[in-house]
Specification:
Helices cover 40% and strands 12% of the residues. Among the domains are: 34 residues; 47 residues, no CATH class; 149 residues, Nucleotidyltransferase, domain 5 (2-Layer Sandwich), CATH 3.30.420.10. It contains 13 helices and seven strands. Strands 4-3-2-5-6 form a five-stranded mixed sheet, sandwiched between helices. It starts with a helix and ends in a 17-residue tail after the last strand. By secondary structure, it is α/β, with parallel strands linked by helices. β3 and β4 form a beta hairpin.
Length: 343
C-alpha cells in the first residue's frame, strides 16, 4: 500500500525523498523494498513493553472505574482518591488508555457539558422571507447609561426594515416593534423567519407569544456565538464606523433617533452594498436591481468589444444574487490521501 502511494506521488512529479519523508520512512528503505518485491517489511518491536499492564491489571482498572464509589468520577479524581486509601493500580493515563480501549471513555457525571447545536439553515430567494434583528448600545449624556437601538434588516435585500431607539431593553418593546414593522411593510408574517440572538428581549415570553400569534418562525443564535447572527452584526459595524458617526454621546433620545433616521435613509437608498453586486438595498428590495445590473453588463460588454486585448478573461459578473443563506451548513470535503509535489 505504501509503495503504491509513493509510486503515485512520483508519477505526479514528486521526488522520492519528499514522498518517502511524508510516510515516515527513508528513500533507501523504499529502494530496498522495491528490490525485494515486498511492500512493508517493518514488523514492529519483537517483544511487548516490559512495563505493559497485564490482563488482570487492566480488568482491575475497569472494575474500579465502574464501582459505586468511582463510577461518577473521572480518572483524574479516581487516582488521587485511591492513593489516599494506599492503593495504586495505574496512572491517570493508564486509566484513560484502558477505558478508551473498552469504549468507556464517556462523560461520567449526571450533569453533562452544555452543547449547542448550530442554528437551522434558512434560505431567502426574495424580500421579507428572512429577517435578522438585534439591539445595540448608543451612548447617552449620562456616563454608564445608554440608549438602545432596535434594528431589523431583511437578509435577502439588506434593507433596514425598522430602526427605533428606546430608553430600555424590553420584550414588550420588541414585540411591539415586530408587529408594527409587519403592518408598515405589508408583510405576511406566517411566511417570515425572524433570526436573533439569545437576549431577554428576543426570547422573553411576551415576544414569543407575539411571534406565535403572528405565525412568525423564530430562529436563534447559539449562546456567545456572534457569527450566528452575521447580518445584524455587520450592519452595526457599518453604522458605527461611518465617518459621520458621533464621537460624542447623543444629547437625548430624539437626537439619537434623528441620527439613526439619517443613517437608514443613506443606507437603504444610496449605499452600494458589496454583497448584492453593489446596488442599494432599496433597489434590490423593490426589484430595480435587474435593470441596473443589466445596464452594467451591457457597458462592460461594449468596453470589451472596443478593446478585446485588454480583457484576458470574462467581464465582471453583474448577475443578481438570487439566493442568500443564513447560517449555511458547511459541507465537509472528502478526505483524500495526497502528496505535495516537491519544489
Amino acid at each position: 500500500m505504501i509503495l503504491e502511494l509513493i509510486n503515485e506521488a512520483e508519477t505526479s512529479g514528486a521526488r522520492l525523498e519528499a514522498a518517502a519523508d511524508i510516510t515516515g520512512i527513508s528513500a533507501r528503505t523504499v529502494t530496498r523494498w522495491r528490490q525485494s518485491d515486498d511492500d512493508d517489511q517493518r514488523k514492529g518491536p519483537p517483544l511487548p513493553p516490559a512495563n505493559k499492564l497485564n490482563e488482570q491489571e487492566r480488568t482491575k482498572i475497569v472494575d474500579v472505574a465502574n464501582s459505586i464509589p468511582f463510577r461518577d468520577m473521572s480518572p483524574k479524581q479516581i487516582v488521587p482518591k485511591l492513593a489516599d486509601q494506599g492503593i495504586y493500580i495505574g496512572s491517570e493515563s493508564s486509566f484513560y488508555r484502558v477505558l478508551k480501549d473498552q469504549h468507556m471513555l464517556k462523560h461520567r457525571q449526571p450533569s453533562k457539558p452544555a452543547t449547542h447545536k448550530r442554528p437551522k439553515e434558512h434560505m431567502a430567494t426574495g424580500p421579507c422571507q428572512v429577517w435578522s434583528w438585534d439591539i445595540t448600545y448608543l451612548r447617552s449624556p449620562v456616563r454608564g447609561m445608554f440608549f438602545y437601538l432596535y434594528m431589523i434588516v431583511d437578509v435577502w435585500s439588506r434593507k433596514i426594515m425598522a430602526a427605533t431607539v428606546f430608553e430600555e431593553e424590553s420584550m414588550d418593546l420588541s414585540s411591539m416593534l415586530i408587529a408594527h414593522t409587519c403592518v408598515t411593510h405589508g408583510v405576511k408574517p406566517e411566511s417570515l423567519v425572524l433570526h436573533s440572538d439569545n437576549g431577554g428581549p428576543m426570547k422573553g415570553s411576551t415576544m414569543q407569544a407575539t411571534l406565535l400569534n403572528l405565525g412568525i418562525i423564530p430562529s436563534f443564535s447559539r449562546p456567545m456565538v456572534s457569527d450566528d447572527n452575521p447580518y445584524s452584526e455587520a450592519l452595526f459595524r457599518t453604522m458605527k464606523y461611518r465617518p459621520g458617526y458621533p464621537s460624542k454621546p447623543f444629547e437625548n433620545l430624539a437626537h439619537a433617533q434623528d441620527w439613526v433616521d439619517e443613517f437608514v435613509s443613506w443606507y437603504n437608498t444610496r449605499h452600494l452594498h458589496s454583497a448584492i453586486r453593489f446596488v442599494s438595498p432599496d433597489d434590490r428590495h423593490y426589484g430595480r436591481e435587474q435593470l441596473i445590473l443589466a445596464n452594467r453588463q451591457h457597458v462592460y460588454k461594449q468596453a470589451q468589444l472596443r478593446h478585446p486585448n485588454r480583457w484576458s478573461r470574462k467581464t465582471r459578473n453583474w448577475k443578481p444574487v438570487l439566493l442568500v443563506q443564513l447560517n449555511p451548513i458547511k459541507k465537509k470535503a472528502p478526505k483524500e490521501h495526497s502528496f505535495k509535489k516537491a519544489a
